[in-house]
């Protein structure tokens, strides 16, 4: 059934030898962005007339233009309000005609990144159940996916067209009959669709059924951020950087079959001579630039693993990529941009994943950016390698919560999980009671107790968040993890300055793990809650001033702090103000 439907779409687009042609981004059952002019463009015979008619909508229109000398034409139709009622666009030139039936107007999003964005619905958790109900998410839910082609491996100039692996269509279960849908409607099997992209769309279609949602995916596993950026944007990443030196070319053991929905450095060789196309700007030119005339509500991004060897560079490149994509698509400076922090990765090179995860937070300084924390939903024994957890429906759910704020205007929903707002330090007092670090054993005594002559100085921290939190102590107990908090001492005794907001992201201290070069750490014990937003932590230190508090700074961290929506607090690195030190 799917093959017949795709063939019908090809006929509707007139892909025979006629001169009149549309880019692959257009098709039956597509979604156009609402409340902006509807741009339709394509190719034809130079100097010939092209007429574009929009019918069966609240604001129908007909526009005629002339094909220019290079064979291109473009028209702009009136903007349309969101509607699930299908309309039709008809393009004619002489005796040639193309038709786009079953089109709707709603919110369109572009999803991009590397393997965690590429990982398909068929490889996500509970895939068979999800695919069986693919057609139950409303008539306004549509998907589209760009194909990965060998020809895209070293593209030096922006292209005007691309190839779709999944043409525009309504997601349907395999074998579904669309006889009750409008004439010309296209159904597509979403099995190969980006899972995070798909589940995000499902959440929006469910929460706002009156507004169609179109999800466009263009991703490629194993790629670095640089391949998705223009040369102009790359200039902001730093001079003299060699991409081959900054990309983390890891190897996976026991790779599954490359057809399972993600492709690593090795499995991409199945495409032919093209391995992972880590050539600067090549995928921007081939897989993004052809989409530029298309308007949309926002972007989703899931990438960073391949840049984990150079977090300082990523902290510069990532915000610049966001700015440039918004600008190149001619969208507002605060157009919603949602990204997922990279997943936990056990037994990886120590500090690489936590470092790049921290570098990603530099994007939060931009307006309209939201972050999905994923460090609590890893899969250490994952079938598709631990860095590819299958829980993409949860990632989509968390991203959709952010969309409630950025897309639908519900400012009461935060743009990420709980964020620290204040930290205070006090020396330990006997009234706090005695406490150990680790598990007390036979013959051990508390390190902090009245009259303890061990020379250790003890103290306590109160850490306050921007909302009510839930401390899930059992999570750490079950998995044999620590509290997740570390207190770093200033070994030089030099006083620091600075605030305690979540914006105090000091990349240098966050990435330093060498006690001879940066402050050294002591563990902390979470001793309880103070009210609904504050954690009490106790600790010991021998010398220097406690100066930096870190939480969940590990490649596979302990995640214990959640909000009422089930979103975890992101790993953080904050300065303890000097005035609060003993």
Mean pLDDT: 80
Shape type: elongated
Beta-strand share of residues: 25-35%
Largest sheet: 12 strands, mixed
Structural class: alpha/beta
How is the quaternary structure best described?
single chain
**Radius of gyration, in angstroms, nearest whole number:** 27 Å
Ends apart, CA distance between termini = 72 Å
Number of helical runs?
12
Residue stretches low in confidence (pLDDT < 50, at least 5 long) are 1-18, 248-273, 435-445, 475-482, 491-511
Which range best describes the helical content: under 10%, 10-25%, 25-40%, 40-55%, 55-70% or over 70%? 10-25%
- Record field, number of beta strands: 23
Outline of this structure?
With 582 residues, the chain is α/β, with parallel strands linked by helices. It contains 12 helices and 23 strands.
SSE topology:
Layout: H1 2-12, E1 31-33, E2 38-43, E3 49-55, E4 61-66, E5 72-77, E6 83-93, E7 96-113, H2 115-118, H3 127-132, E8 141-146, E9 164-171, E10 187-188, H4 195-207, E11 213-219, H5 231-234, H6 243-246, H7 282-288, E12 298-302, H8 311-328, E13 337-340, H9 352-360, E14 369-372, H10 392-406, E15 420-427, E16 457-465, E17 470-471, H11 473-478, E18 485-490, H12 507-511, E19 520-530, E20 534-541, E21 545-551, E22 561-562, E23 572-575
Parallel strand pairs: 1-7, 7-11, 7-12, 8-11, 9-10, 12-13, 13-14
Antiparallel strand pairs: 2-5, 3-4, 3-6, 6-7, 8-9, 15-16, 16-20, 17-22, 18-19, 18-21, 19-20, 21-23
């Amino acid at each position: 059934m799917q093959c017949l439907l795709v063939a019908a779409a090809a006929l509707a687009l007139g892909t025979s030898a006629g001169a009149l042609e549309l880019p692959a981004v257009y098709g039956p059952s597509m979604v156009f962005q609402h409340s902006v002019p509807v741009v339709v463009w394509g190719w034809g015979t130079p100097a010939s007339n092209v007429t574009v008619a929009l019918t069966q909508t609240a604001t129908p229109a007909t526009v005629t233009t002339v094909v220019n000398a290079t064979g291109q034409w473009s028209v702009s139709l009136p903007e349309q309000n969101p509607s699930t009622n299908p309309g039709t666009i008809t393009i004619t030139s002489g005796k040639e005609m193309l038709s786009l039936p079953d089109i709707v107007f709603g919110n369109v999003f572009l999803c991009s990144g590397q393997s965690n964005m590429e990982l398909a619905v068929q490889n996500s958790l509970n895939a068979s159940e999800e695919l069986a109900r693919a057609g139950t998410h409303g008539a306004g839910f549509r998907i589209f996916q760009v194909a990965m082609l060998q020809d895209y491996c070293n593209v030096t100039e922006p292209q005007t067209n691309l190839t779709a692996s999944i043409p525009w269509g309504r997601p349907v279960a395999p074998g579904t009959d669309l006889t009750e849908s409008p004439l010309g409607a296209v159904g597509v099997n979403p099995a190969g669709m980006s899972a995070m992209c798909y589940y995000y769309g499902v959440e929006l279609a469910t929460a706002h059924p009156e507004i169609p949602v179109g999800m466009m995916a263009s991703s490629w596993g194993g790629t670095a951020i640089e391949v998705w950026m223009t040369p102009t944007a790359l200039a902001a990443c730093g001079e003299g950087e060699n991409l081959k030196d900054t990309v983390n070319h890891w190897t996976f053991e026991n790779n599954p079959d490359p057809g399972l929905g993600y492709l690593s450095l090795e499995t991409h060789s199945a495409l032919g001579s093209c391995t992972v196309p880590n050539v600067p700007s090549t995928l921007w030119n081939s897989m993004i630039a052809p989409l530029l005339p298309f308007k949309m509500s926002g972007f989703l991004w899931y990438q960073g693993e391949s840049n984990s060897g150079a977090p300082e560079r990523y902290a510069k490149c990532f915000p610049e990529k966001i700015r440039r994509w918004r600008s190149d698509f001619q969208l507002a400076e605060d157009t919603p941009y949602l990204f997922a922090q990279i997943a936990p990765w056990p037994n990886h090179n120590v500090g690489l994943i936590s470092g790049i995860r921290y570098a990603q937070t530099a994007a939060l300084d931009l307006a309209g950016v939201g972050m999905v924390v994923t460090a609590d939903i890893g899969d250490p024994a994952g079938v598709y390698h631990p860095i590819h957890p299958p829980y993409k429906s949860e990632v989509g759910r968390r991203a959709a919560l952010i969309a409630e704020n950025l897309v639908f205007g519900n400012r009461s929903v935060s743009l990420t999980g709980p964020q620290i707002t204040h930290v205070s330090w006090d020396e330990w007092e006997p009234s706090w009671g005695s406490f150990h670090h680790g598990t007390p054993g036979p013959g051990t005594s508390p390190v902090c107790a009245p009259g303890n002559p061990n020379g250790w100085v003890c103290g306590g921290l109160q850490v306050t968040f921007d909302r009510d939190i839930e401390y899930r102590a059992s999570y750490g107990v079950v998995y044999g993890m620590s509290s997740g908090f570390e207190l770093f001492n200033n070994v030089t005794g030099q006083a620091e300055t600075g605030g305690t907001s979540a914006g105090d992201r000091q990349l240098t201290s966050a990435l330093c793990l060498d006690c001879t070069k940066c402050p050294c750490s002591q563990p902390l014990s979470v001793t309880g809650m103070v009210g609904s937003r504050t954690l009490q932590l106790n600790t010991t230190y021998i010398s220097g001033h406690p100066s930096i508090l870190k939480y969940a700074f590990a490649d596979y961290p302990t995640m214990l702090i959640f909000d009422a929506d089930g979103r975890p607090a992101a790993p953080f690195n904050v300065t303890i103000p000097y005035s609060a030190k003993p």
